[in-house]
Amino acid sequence: MAARRAWLRVWLLLCFLPQVYCEYGMVHVLSEKGSSKGKDYCILFNSQWAHLPHDLGKASLLQLQDQTASVLCSPSDVPDGGFNNQIPMVMRGNCTFYEKVRLAQINGARGLLIISRERLVPPGGNRSQYEEIDIPVALLSYTDMLDIGKSFGSSVKGAMYAPNEPVLDYNMVIIFVMAVGTVAIGGYWAGSRDVKKRYMKHKRDDGAEKHDDETVDVTPIMICVFVVMCCSMLVLLYFFYDHLVYVIIGIFCLAASIGLYSCLSPFVRRFPLGKCRIRDNNLPYFHKRPQVRMLLLAIFCISVSIVWGIFRNEDQWAWVLQDALGIAFCLYMLKTIRLPTFKGCTLLLLVLFVYDVFFVFITPFLTKTGESIMVEVAAGPSDSATHEKLPMVLKVPRLNSSPLALCDRPFSLLGFGDILVPGLLVAYCHRFDIQVQSSRVYFVACTIAYGIGLLVTFVALALMQMGQPALLYLVPCTLLTSFAVALWRKELAMFWTGSGFAVNTSLI
Question: What are the start-end ranges of the E strands in 135-180?
């Protein structure tokens, strides 16, 4: 145990040293003929060999010499004339990084790009080797090397540089608006719909709501079962990601199409067209004789999900469809699932708070690679054979040009759980507002608290530069705010049990 603690201290010390040993950078490639626009490619370098400039304008634009037919491990691999003021590209393997870069340097190279067919790793060495070498060395993926040849031909120039990462990307604003908007709209809709439904039941006139979906009241036993299922599924995804990811994608397509239908159906019902029903038949679903407009809506929603499923890996635009379907799914879940008491809200949020913190901060000490299970599954394992990503997130591409966006994480992500879990509390607050006729003070306070918690999450992300369990900040903000409002209004007992329902039609 003492040895483990000592190792952890050393590891933390290395992590927070001012000099970074492994960094992402870029190589800007141009055709020597000057007839095509340049393009940036991801590289992985070790700044202990030599630093790269942060500004492209200060980087040396040099000829890239394709020497991928060799591995540059012996003098016989060096071409006649050497690498005078060039950046050779050689294959990885057969000898150490030091042997390759030393041969390149003594033969006049100004840098070295090592082409790797495998996962990129930082080119390492020891202190004496670092002191001997004064040219930059970096790894470039084999796929990118082929793209360079295809896009620019054999005569190309390149400049290696490493621009500073922005503290926060502007796409966080988009994620913030989507998340807070979904929580606010979903909570308001769920609360209003639930109270209206109970009012109609009180008036013995359920027929007006016969087309609405039934709500599901969550019990403590259901919460425990749900958390166990979440833990089991996350662990299974961590070990069998390539097999289960397609199951999750299929479930998302089905659930998202249902959610989109549920969100659009109230608007479609307002149209005066398409009210006629299909003829009598014995077919599944069709035997209920749905209206033509609702049937067309169902076909549209299924088609949208299928289009996303087919083109889900198109990074240019598929994320828009995924976010739209994800928001519809979240709204549907907030409308369907109901927490009847603040006691139930507290239990659910606290249990998932522990779940989120454990799988983000504790699991790195339990896995062989030192990776967080939550972050690894959410972002997709780097060694995945399928290269598929889980769709249960809102994703927005990074708007700033940076090595991190190009190399590692081109999207910023926010999981559906970070919307749904606090959103259920917001929905409960809105129902209670109508119950006690409080002019929606609980709803507004909890929604604002959610927004503040999300901002705190973004700040923590910028400061720590690692994946954050959003519920670590969202749960205290929303729970404590709701509790404080109830205490201030002297309604804590009623708020805790959710008792004393009173119909107030003016607020419906």
Answer: 137-141, 156-161
> How many CB atoms sit inside 10 A of residue 308's CB?
23
- Going through 23-111 in order, the beta strands assigned E by DSSP cover 23-31, 39-45, 62-66, 86-91
Tell me the pLDDT tens digit for each residue of 244-266. Answer: 999 999 999 999 999 999 999 98
Rounded to an integer, the average pLDDT of 94-113 is 84
Name the nearest CA neighbour of 325 among 402, 240, 369, 261. Answer: 261
* Highest mean pLDDT out of 23-27, 55-59, 296-300: 296-300
**pTM tops 0.90, yes or no:** no
Give the residue-averaged pLDDT of 45-53.
77
Residue 356 bears catalytic tag: yes
DSSP output for 412-472: EEEETHHHHHHHHHHHHHHHHHHHHT-TTHHHHHHHHHHHHHHHHHHHHHHHH-S---THH
pLDDT at residue 248, rounded to an integer: 93
Burial of 502 (0-12, 13-18, 19+ CB in 10 A): exposed
Which SS3 state, helix, strand or coil, does residue 156 take?
A: strand
Q: Is 383 assigned a catalytic role?
A: no
Nearest to 280 by CA among 272, 268, 289: 289
C-beta of residue 32 within 8 angstroms of C-beta of residue 63: yes
Residues 117-149: b if buried by 16+ CB within 10 A, e if exposed: eeebebbebeeebbeebebbbbbbbeebbeebe
**Confidence bin at 118 (pLDDT 50/70/90):** confident
d(CA 451, CA 474): 8
Of 77, 144, 169, 418, which residue is the catalytic one? 418
From its phi and psi, is residue 124 left (phi > 0), alpha (psi between -120 and 50) or beta?
Answer: beta
Are 45 and 162 in contact, with CB atoms under 8 Å apart? yes
- Give the Cα separation of 239 and 222 in Å (integer): 26
pLDDT at 206 over 70: no
CA distance linking residue 86 with residue 64, whole number of Å: 6
Question: Which residues sit opposite 397 in a β-bridge?
Answer: 411
Q: For residue 407, what are its two tokens?
A: 């190399």
Main-chain dihedrals φ then ψ at residue 395, nearest 5 degrees:
-135, 140
Please choose, from the candidates 335, 272, 267, 273, the residue with its C-alpha nearest in 3D space to the C-alpha of residue 301.
267
More confident residue, 76 or 49: 76
Q: How many CA within 13 A on the CB side of residue 52?
A: 30
Average pLDDT of the residues in 191-217 = 59
Instruction: Point out the catalytic residue in the list 40, 169, 194, 356.
Output: 356
Q: What single DSSP character describes residue 48?
A: T
Give exposure, 30-49, as e/b (b: 16+ Cβ within 10 Å).
Answer: bbeeeeeebbbbbbbbbbbb
Residue 419 to residue 427: CA distance in whole angstroms = 12
